[in-house]
Amino acid sequence: MSDIFDQHRIVDFTEHPFVVLIGVDGGAEIVGDDQVCKRQAARVLRILADVLESEHPNGPCHPAARTPQWTRPDEPLMPHGGSLDRDAQLWTDGTGHVWNLALPWRDSAGSTWLWYGSLDGQGAPLMRSNDWPEPQPLDALCYLRGPMAPVHRGGAA
What we know:
Number of helices: 2
Number of strands: 11
Helix content: 10-25%
Largest sheet: 6 strands, antiparallel
Strand order of the largest sheet: 9-8-7-6-10-11
Distance between the termini: 29 Å
């Protein structure tokens, strides 16, 4: 059986402009809802909801247990291998993880960080927080204050 951490899929937002991410806690984040017709997206989501509902067995819901994201093994972000799509405000670190810099990010201590448009000398986004006097690179924040969680529409995603 394959470890869930070995399964990665990089989403190409030019091929899939509308993405729904559902976290293990049931929270959801929609990326790209301004890129597609909202009525068409709603119609597709209704069809998916009907399919999922019809496949659910009778009785209580018992989804497969998953390892929470904060227990993932440490891995470097490798900012020097990253790339930035400034228009979409998406930074892909050297490991292939895509970070939506348009969203605020909350660290494990509860501080909220925002990207303000600059990269450090290694190529990592510089983040600012009202709780810190100086901007900090995203890779350092992940290492020292991680895990980082996106804050979406008024709550953590």
